[in-house]
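Justification of resources, computational component.

The compute hours requested in this renewal are based largely on the per-chain cost of generating structure records like the one below. Each record pairs the submitted sequence with a full C-alpha cell output. That output is archived, and it is also reused by downstream analysis tasks.
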Amino acid sequence: MVTLASEGTAVEVVRGRLLPSDAVDLEARPILLRVPIVARGRGVALVHATLTGWSCEETCREVSLEATTTLHVGARRTP
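The structure output for this chain reads:
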C-alpha cells in the first residue's frame, strides 16, 4: 500500500492511498502506480509517499519505506 500526502498549496494529492490493484499493469513486476495529483496554483509543494508491505521468510514482518519529492509549479504554458 502507498499512502500519499502533500504539503503546500501548489498541488493536491487526489487519492491518498494506492493499492497494488491500482497498478497500471496488474501483471507487471515491479508494479507501476501513477500518483494522481492536481496543480492548484504556482508555487512549491512537497509530496510525501510511504510504502508499506510485508517481507516473509521464516516469519513475516511489516516493512515501510518513505520518500519525499519537491514539485515546482509554474505558469501555464500556452501551446
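The CA atoms of residues 65 and 78 lie 38 Å apart. The chain has a mean pLDDT of 93.
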